[in-house]
Structure formats: structure tokens, C-alpha cells
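Record 1 of the preview.
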Amino acid sequence: MKSCINLILLAGMNVILASAQSLEPVSGDIVPFISRYEGTQVKNKTTLPLQTQENIQIGSHADWKMTVHKKSVPGEPDVTDYELTWQLQKGHAEDIVVGVDFAFQEWSMDNYVFVPASVYDGNRFAVKNIGYPPYWYEKSEWRKDMPTTTTVQPTLGLEGSGATKIELTTGNASTPLMAFFSPVKKQAWMVQTTQGNRLGNHGMLIAENETKTESTFTITSPAMREKRALGAGFATPSGDEPADYKQGDEVSIAFRVYSFPAKQLNDMYQRYLRARKGYNPVDRREDLPFSEAWKLVNNLYQTERWDERIDMYWLSKVGGNTSWNFIWQLGWCGGGQNTLPIMIKGGVQGMERAKKNLEVIFSKSQAASGLFNAYGNGKEFASFGFGSPMKYNESLVRSQGDWLYMAQRQFRYLESIGETVPAHWKEGLKKQADAFVRLWKREGQFGHFVDVKTGEICIGGSTAGAIVCGAMALASQTYNEPAYLEVARQAGRKYYKDYIQKGYTTGGPGEILSAPDSESAFGLFEGLMALYEVTKEKEWLKYCSELLPICASWTVSYDFVFPPQSEMGKIDARSCGAFWASVANKHGAPAICTWSGDCLLKYFRATGDRYALDLLTDIAHGTTQYISRPDRPIGNMPPGGSCERVNLSDWEGQNGVGGNIFASCSWVEAAMALTVVEIPGVYVQKDRDIVAVFDNVQAEKVKAGKGKYILKLTNPTKFPAEVTVFCETSREAGKVIDRFFGKEKQVVSLQSGESKVIEL
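->
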């Protein structure tokens, strides 16, 4: 179905044409407009009718025609596509912004407002005005019941804040989408748009009136903000500029509107999960096979990261001029995590070095409480720090949980290949598990920062300790201790109630206060899946199903068009699958910090949820393109290095889009290594005819039947590939597999350009 409207009007006239298209069942109006600006301020705004109307002329200085194309979306009766085109037919017009308002009159602060990777629950959180790295440095600020707290960020504000607005561009979101859920009306609404047009990125604005009884969601072309959001605070003016038009110039805005029943917040999130990849383009490309990526990353570890003087892997180049928080860390940024892939795939040398690294951790970094000092230079160790140690022995609980979890995984791998785990390693890790039991029994939470000497909470709240529930579940098996599993269960339920049901998780990184973030979301997903693997209880799968769209909200859903001369533009990066950091650190990254995402494959095997499989495909497949190589260096990074910046937003300035800070990043290196070691290249479920290709190769079913499944593998890259293929049936998928690096996989060698047909 199509309808068109031709309209002539004079830009800059304050004429209101009140007709509008009603949005049902959520009450709102679609109102196109043309605005003229002075600087970053609206001088005049002319609203237009959306319905068909013949040739309305207003004045003669600058005549415009607006055309509206409207159509339904097959199979989705509650979804409508629009494309609005503004054309200057006569004269000239300067400093112009066109757009469309979605106006809601019956508004409530209780509505959950959402922009993926940028706005969660309207960002109505406590605020601490502090620069980088933000933290509660004074003991007088510490609270065990710390509310969710951000630095100065775009927000709709708390009660009493008056009129507020959030100003973004499409580059501020993992998906160019705005949404809200009304708990009173049990309805939800979303609008999805494109990245932009010839004028650049679209703008996305959400505004509330003084009494917070009305709101307006707005898409503009070009983006036009008064203030540009930084890591903490704003740049004023934004640097955005309106457009000038001459006769014949035109511009279009396309968008898709959703309005649907939603009994609970998760209903909105599930609809978002289904919709996020259905509107904007994705163009998959095979770039660098997993096997070649491993060679580059491992060579970097063994030649530039190993320090034989201290028997540890550095987080940066050995001997570099760096602060000691970039020499070694327990968790979060990779120090206790990178040794696992090195054990598995680093050969004899890698295995010996990894074990030496673990010996230093157990012999030198454990504190009296049973917790571990999380930073060190191999000789001295401290609780935590930003360049220098913290003053009061406080340590990020996420680092503690990462280690408890990852150390056990390394124990299990060593035992699986017939090695004996030293007794003092197991005894040391049990002390840490016991410390978490005492903490939980005393406080009913794991906290955000804890005192490594006493084991007491310094700062509470947040989801920083999400991975601990998984670590304790594993520990119940490692040490045959039911008390560990009971603590894990209680923690998993608390995180579900306090965070998943509220639509966000918080505090995973150590330097964002307790802002909503991606790292805690995936830490919790990993932890809940560990609980399921240990218990086989469906409860944890339910929690994961509700957490999945929250995790997806941090993952870029389409291929952003980077500036051609940016580092990402030069390599023609395909951003789909890049992983956003937090509402504070406004950038994508090449991988999950600091996991492979294999928990998504585990979840798919347990549930058959294709959205999880597709999400992992995007994340895993996209990682290797960001690795610097001899034939295609990125910035000043060495071969095997990868930067954490996949900048879609301009939070570091316009020149930072697609660029900025190209020095190799430790946690990305660790995540890369985990991804290419833990994730199979190709996953096949024969009876359901599912073929998921994570590696940078191509795979297709040739024939199936009589117990046979024939697969064709092709390597279109310019590198050789050793492709792992994991094949099973849906019945076999019900069996728990600790990790996907075992002997159950086939390995297929492919030269550049080669195809092979194999029987599974």
C-alpha cells in the first residue's frame, strides 16, 4: 500500500498544520517538519501534514515538495514502513534541518526508554560529575547499597529535573532505533531508521516537557545536537551543522514504526531482538581465517608479551614505558584469561609459560582473605589501580570472579590432557571460593569493590560480580562442595531480579562507576550458563532467554559506513558484530570483554534459539578483520595486535569516528585468542539442517540422507585455513560439553581459494 503527498511551503514560516497519523495502540502522532537554525538553536519550525493533500503553497521565496511513501510490512500487521522525501523546488534555503517528530501526550516517567548501547531506562540514574577514570576515591562516598551511578551522560533525568532531552546521532547506537515500554498501558513502541543519507548520520532526539507528561521522539537529517556527548560530560557546541539547499536538492528519511502489546519489559526486548537485523544492511565478508588469526596473536604473545624475568605475560609490550596496571591484571583485561588459549594451542613452549604464569599468581598474589591482588608487575602486587595502587586495598570484584572462573577452566583443561594440577593451586583457589561464601553470607551480595585483605565490601551494588555465580557453580564440582552451589543459585536469582528484570546490567568495567554496560551482561550470561551446565535446571535457561536481547543490544546489528580515510574505512570494516562497551565509553570493540561468547553456542544447544546462534555468528566472524597484519597494518599496531576502538560515535571527536587510539589492547588480544580457540569454525546440527559458519570461510550442505551429511567448504580468503567442524544431532546437543576444543571436531585444511566436500 502506498500513499503520496505533494506540498509546497515556505521554509521558515511558523505555520502549524495539525493533521497527523495516529499511532495505535500507543497514542502518538507522526509529524514531519522543516526547521531553520541559527547555530545549534532552532529559529523557526514548520510542521507538515502526513496525509495526502494536493499542492499547498505557502509563500514564494523557497518552495518545497514533500513526498510520503507508506507501506505495510508483510507478516507484521503492527509494523509500518515510511519514507519521507523533502525537495526544494524553487529558490534556495540555508541552515535547514528536516525531520519527523513522534509526539506522545499521555506520557509517564515510569516508561522505560531505550536506545541500544546508549540509553537504558532513560538513563535515569544517580550521577557523579567526575573525569576519567571515574571512581569513588573518598571513603566517605562508599556505600554498600550504591545505586546505579554514571558519569555525566545524556539522560531524561530523575523526578524534579524539569524538561530534559537526549541528543544522539545514529552513530551513538548499536542499532539506529528508539523505543519505550509503558508498564501502565502494557504497550511498547519502537522506531528504527537508517544510519543516514548524503547529509551524514541522522539525529535521534528524545525530549520530555517540564512536567514529564509529554514526550517527543525525533529523527532529523542531518543530525543537529546542541551538545555532543563525551565519555563524561558534553562538548558545546556539538559541531553539528545544518544543511543548505539549492533548487532541485532533496533528502529522504526512511523509518519503520512498531506499536505492539507488551505485558512486561521483556516483551519489548524480545521484539527488539527479532527486529534489530531486519532493516539495515549487512554484507558479510571473509577476511582472515581463525587459524591464521591464532598464528598472529600467539606470535605476539610469545615474542612481545612474555617476560622471562618474572615468568608472566605482560598486557603490553615487555619493557614498554607503561604504568603497572598495563603489566599484569588478574581478570577483566586478560591476565588470568589469556593463559587458557595459550595452554590449549600454544604448543610446548606456550604450555610451559602458561603454567609458570599461574604459579606466580598462586605463589605471590593471594591475600590473607583468600582473594587475590588484581594488579602487579610480577614482583609486587596490589589490589587494583588506575596507573597506581588504590589507597584502601579495594579490588574490582569482577576481576576476582574472572579468575575464580578461568582458573578452574584451566585446571579442567590440564586434567583433560592427563596433567596433574598442583595441590597448592587448588588449595589457593578454594580459599578464594570460601571468601566468596563468607562474603555472601555476611552481605547477601558480592559487591562491586571488595577489600582484598579483609574480604569485606567497600562499595556494593552493580552486576560486577556476575561471573562469580558461574565460578561458584563450577567450584561446587571442583571441590565437591554443595555450599558453593547454593551460593551460586542465590546469586543468580538475585542478579535476575535486580538487573535482568530491570532491563540492564551494570559495573562490569572498573572505570565506569556502575553505568549500564555490556561486559557485566555477558559475564552474567556466562555465569548463568555455567549454573545450567552444573545443575541442568531450566530456571537458568529462562533467565538467559531474557538476558539475550540485553546482550544483543550491545552488539552492532548492521554495517556502519565509516569515513573512507579513517582506519576502519581503510580496511573496509564490516561493523556488524562489533561489541559496544558501555553508556559511558561510547565505542564498539572487536570482541566481548573478555570472553569468546561460546556461552551463546551452549545456550543454543540447550534451547534451539536461533537468535543466540546468529548473534554469536556475527560476533565471532567479525573479530579477525580487526587484527593488524604484515600485509594490512592498522594504525601503528604490530602484527597480531588489535585495538578496542570500533568507533561509530563521535565521542572522541568527528575525526575519531572509525579511528583513534590505535595501540594494541590486552583484553582484545585475549578475547581474540579465546574466540579462535574455543569457537568451532563451522557448527552443524544434521537433523535440523543447521549450518552456522563462525570462521572466515564458506560452508553449504550438498546432500543429506541415509545417515550421511555432505558439506562443501570453501576458503575465499588469500590465506590457508585449518577449519574445525563440530557436527551433532539435536538430541546430542542436549549433552553438556565443557568446551568446543576437544577431539570431537573434524579439522579440514584448505588452501586459499580451495573447496572441499566432506562427509560428516
